[in-house]
Amino acid sequence: MDFKLTEEQEMFRQAVADFVDKEVTPIAEELDEQEAFTWEPFRKIAGLGWLGIRYSEAYGGGEADTMTYNLMCEELARGSLAVAATVAMQSLMGTDFIYRFGTEEQKQKWLVPALRGEKIGVIAMTEPEAGSDLGGIRTTAVRDGGGYLINGTKMWITSATVADFFTVAAKTDPEAGFRGVDLFLVEKEREGVSVGRQIKKLGTRASETSEVILENVWIPAENLLSDEEGQGMMLLRGILNQIRVMTGALSLGLTQAALDSSLRYAQERQAFGRPIIKFQAIQHKLAEMATRLEAARSLVYRATWLIDEGTPDTKISAMAKLFASETAAYVVDETTRIFGAYGYAMEYDAQRYFRDARFLLYGGGTSEILKTMIARELT
Ligand SMILES: Cc1cc2nc3c(=O)[nH]c(=O)nc-3n(C[C@H](O)[C@H](O)[C@H](O)COP(=O)(O)OP(=O)(O)OC[C@H]3O[C@@H](n4cnc5c(N)ncnc54)[C@H](O)[C@@H]3O)c2cc1C
Question: Closest ligand 1 atom, CA of 358?
Fold first, then answer.
């Protein structure tokens, strides 16, 4: 066993950490209040080439392994979960399918500029009445001449307001459940695509989330992101482990920020004539928070390492996402308690961590769904 990061990975992690301390953390609160897409840090991150870090050089990528990618996500989330979420959408879910299954022309037109941050790509799976149950989506893709006619409504779509292209889940066979789902490249410029209301959210407010309406949208047959129909779930399974470990990494970053903030506050805040960190009750909280974070980090890194070894493990990836996101929820709750009344004040960062952590419980699969999956793998 070797628990060390390589020299290259450590140097990259430090570079992202320095960037976050200088460019993200100081404006995180302001971005949260603006509730708008975070163009400023996003463009700087694009300029550093980090949006394409996990893709091949042929498309302007950095050829990095999953560990390096997740270290970036972890560090960004330490500064702002909203910024990290928009970057993750652009650098993984919003671009991966076109990278793997788009035509060369589509890649040159959409992927290459997306990795430079010039075009925005997002994924549109969830619907008003179907989230965890992807087989229950109602959006349809019906063959029409040399292409498909798409109709449906998507919900909770990250960065839809600023998006240029969507990877849309739609049913080519409405009767077939999961097996009827396919993925399509839908460019926003196509007639019939519109972005509906933006959802007012509890947390990750600097990451915009909206409804997307697809009304008689015609797309050519080559926009089906696979060789044949009925492959959507299989394509998705191809990156599900990566999405889960990435969400685990986001959880680590947010948890680290909450722990650091708690430690600082506990050393500064005085009660009964001494800093509150001198009270054993507070020390035990901090010890428990730090221990759970380290356990989560070990699990997320192990799941990531398995992916890089070419032996991804669905159960371990699900456990990593489950444990890391639940750890984040636990730690941010303890943070607000350590802050006392100031954990309830909008001028301190504890409340933002508390709000933002809730997102981690849904994105990448809910805890209930993950537990069901893990249990299935046990038997
Ligand atoms: C901030 C944010 C951004 C998002 N961005 C995107 C995006 O960009 N693109 C996109 O497509 N989606 C996005 N989503 C949607 C997200 O993927 C879904 O919220 C998630 O899949 C859960 O679906 P749901 O909210 O409809 O919950 P539901 O599936 O309705 O679940 C409701 C509850 O029932 C439980 N439940 C459901 N089924 C079962 C079962 N079989 N067994 C046990 N319990 C069950 C769930 O665990 C949960 O507790 C985003 C969500 C949020 C909050």
Answer: 53
Q: Is the dihedral of CA 6, 299, 329, 135 positive or negative?
A: positive
Structure confidence at residue 367 (pLDDT): 98
Query: Which residue owns the Cα nearest ligand 1 atom 44?
Result: 368
Q: Where are the domains of the chain?
A: 7-115, 121-228, 233-378
Q: Which of 37, 86, 134, 156 to mutate to test the pocket of ligand 1 (most atoms within 8 A of CB)?
A: 156
Angstrom distance (rounded) from CA 105 to CA 50: 23
The model's confidence at residue 379, banded by pLDDT at 50, 70 and 90, is confident
User: DSSP label at 199?
Assistant: P
Describe the crossing of helices 232-268 and 314-338 by its angle, rounded to 10 degrees. Answer: 30
Q: Atom 38 (ligand 1): residue with closest C-alpha?
A: 132
- Name the pLDDT band for 48 (thresholds 50, 70, 90): very high
**7-115 matches 121-228 in fold:** no
Domain 121-228, classified CATH 2.40.110.10, yes or no:
yes
| pLDDT over 90, % of the chain | 96
- List residues near ligand 1 (CB under 6 A): 122-126, 131-133, 156-158, 201, 204, 209, 359, 362-363, 366, 368-369, 372
In terms of DSSP bridges, do strands 121-124 and 165-171 run parallel, antiparallel, or are they unpaired?
A: parallel
Residue labelled with tokens 């949260």: 32
Residue 31 confidence class, pLDDT cut points 50, 70, 90: very high
For the segment 318-344, the average pLDDT, to the nearest whole number, is 98
| Sequence-ordered list of residues with C-beta below 8 angstroms from that of 7, at least 6 positions apart, any chain | none
Q: How confident is the model at residue 237 (pLDDT cuts 50, 70, 90)?
A: confident
Q: How far apart are CA 147 and CA 286, in angstroms?
A: 58
